[in-house]
Structure formats: C-alpha cells, structure tokens
Specification:
The chain has 160 residues and is an alpha+beta fold. Helix content is 43%, strand content 16%. The chain has one domain (3-159): Alpha-Beta Complex (Lambda Exonuclease, Chain A). It has helices spanning 3-11, 13-20, 30-42, 78-93, 118-135, 155-159; strands at 50-52, 55-57, 59-61, 66-70, 100-105, 110-114. Helix 4 links the parallel strand 4 (66-70) and strand 5. The structure holds iron/sulfur cluster. Iron/sulfur cluster binds at residues 12, 14-15, 18, 143-144, 146, 149, 152, 154-155, 158.
C-alpha cells in the first residue's frame, strides 16, 4: 500500500479509488507539479529518495532513523501524519526499530515530528483494511463537493 493511498483515504475516498484504478490525471495538475518542485528544491543537496515495497521516502536519515517527508501544503493536516506513520510501520515490518518521522513544511517553515504508538499501529491496520474495502468496490464512491475539489486533478472527471 502506498503513502499516496493512505493520504487519499483521508482526503477523498473517490480520489483513492480513481488513483488506485490507474485513472491517472495527476500529471496534469499544477498542484502536483508545484509539490514536486518544492520537494526537489527543498532537498536539492541531500535528496535521496528511497523506495521500499510500495512506498517512496523523500529522504531517510539512516543514522538518526528519521524519515523526512516534504509537504508543499500551507496547512498541516492529519493525513500527512498518517502517511508518515504508515512509512514508519513499513520500516518496522522490515525489522528497523526506533524510527520516527519529520514532516517539513517549507511554505510554513515548520517541522512536525511523528511517532508511531501502539494505538496508532492498531488504527493503521483498520485504515489499511478500510482502504482495501474501498478500492475493491466495483465503482468509485460519490463526489464529495468540498472546496478543495476545484484544485483536484480529477475535477473535470467528477464535475464536468
Ligand atoms: S474532485 Fe473532489 S470528489 Fe472528485 S476526486 Fe477530487 S476531491 Fe474527490
């Protein structure tokens, strides 16, 4: 399961379904392009993406055991935290203990620290089960009519 799927689970279940079923319009989104630019720009010197199973870490500090995730958003959101908790749990599943995370918000010039508690592990399993249930649906869930739909890569598909 990818970090993006966890992220979309919180953001919009329809988006989760469309993305997972490879209805991929993300490359057309200015938002996504800008996110990539900020991510690359912020870590130009130390950028070292690491792919483990289905996840891609922006940067992993092996010595300090810290996962760094860069978010271009100007708002801190719960979904970002769960995405990083998911990454920590994937590293744990590989036998790497004591990992924490840091979410860097270049626009806000802030960093949020992330840890994975026992309760989080249980909740994460529930979330992953719910993700599987959603992506197994024969049709996508309905549109959610949120203000941020206007900036979504699937806007045309959902509303036009
Ligand atoms: S436009 Fe709105 S309803 Fe459609 S996928 Fe995006 S966030 Fe979900």
């Amino acid at each position: 399961m990818t970090g993006t799927q966890i992220h979309y689970y919180f953001l919009c279940k329809r988006k989760l379904w469309l993305f997972t079923h490879k209805i991929d319009m993300e490359q057309n989104s200015d938002d996504v392009a800008m996110g990539k630019f900020i991510s690359e720009d912020s870590y130009k010197r130390e950028k070292k993406e690491i792919k483990i199973d289905d996840i891609v870490l922006d940067f992993y500090d092996e010595k300090a055991k810290i996962i760094h995730e860069v978010k271009k958003s100007d708002k801190m959101e719960e979904t970002h935290i769960w995405q990083v908790k998911h990454y920590i749990s994937v590293l744990e599943s590989k036998g790497i203990e004591g990992v924490t995370g840091e979410i860097d918000y270049p626009k806000l010039r802030q960093t949020v620290k992330v840890e994975l508690s026992d309760n989080d592990r249980l909740r994460l399993e529930e979330i992953k089960q719910e993700v599987r249930t959603i992506i197994d649906l024969p049709l996508p869930p309905g549109v959610i009519n949120k203000p941020f739909c206007k900036n979504c890569a699937y806007y045309d598909l959902c509303y036009i």
